[in-house]
Amino acid sequence: MAESPTSHRSRAKLLDTFLTDALSIFWGDWLKLRVRVGQVAASGLVSPLIYIVAFGLGLGSSLDAVSKPTAGDSYLEFILPGMVALSSMAISFGGTTFSICGDRLFTKTFEEMLLVPVHPLAMHLGRMMAGIVRGLLTSGSVILVAVIFTGKVWSFLNPLFLLLLVLNCAVFAGLGVIVGLSVQSLEMVGLYNNFLIVPMSFLGATFFDPAKLPALLKPIVFCLPLTYTSIGLRSAAYRPLSEFPWYSIPVLLGVAAILSVIGAKRFSQQQD
User: Fold this and answer.
1) Label partner for 87 (CA 20 to 30 A): which of 45, 169, 170, 245?
2) Which residues are CB-neighbours of 155 under 8 A, at least 6 positions away?
3) pTM surpassing 0.85?
4) 15 CB contacts (<8 Å, ≥6 apart)?
């Protein structure tokens, strides 16, 4: 049976309302974020710069003398996409988590948002979009550093590279929303960071090629979403399109979708 025009218009109106609600939630965060864009862009730059100098320039010169990296012309080039992935993960997660915690635990303005007649999924997506912007601002600074070091502008600004970067920000901003809704103190945020984000920073293929790991360790590494971002960004930057790991895109999309469902459920059950 053909769908009636009235039913079609009703669904289109619901979708339009849903998107408007999500953008409204995002705009509320953006109004607070835009006054400190420079601070956000620079906040996640320190750790990647330290890693670039210590590993890329320091250790990298020794490694380049004995072996050639699997992607890029030097070990420094090899780790630069991983540094972009790392910085976007850290700020998307941390900025989103602390933003929600601040509203919930300190300013006590979070309750007002829960009273607004907005679908829980729209609330999650709005907060997640703000986290994506935070991650892109910081990773943009790291990309600038990468371009300066390598001179390869297109490697770090091609559409496939940017798509993976946005998906990575979406995954960890979505995780940040869930953690921000769940924790009862800033100390608990530190625990999540120490036991989840920091280990993933080193195990998520940022400094090594997971294909060279022992078989027993590969399942652990490939359980981490950052691994798919790192190998995808590295391939998008240096390798031909025929060698791109296309599976990384649906994996990151699937993780972001699952986290969105969980986040929407948390919003619907939130009692703050």
Assistant:
1) 245
2) 161, 236, 237, 238
3) yes
4) none
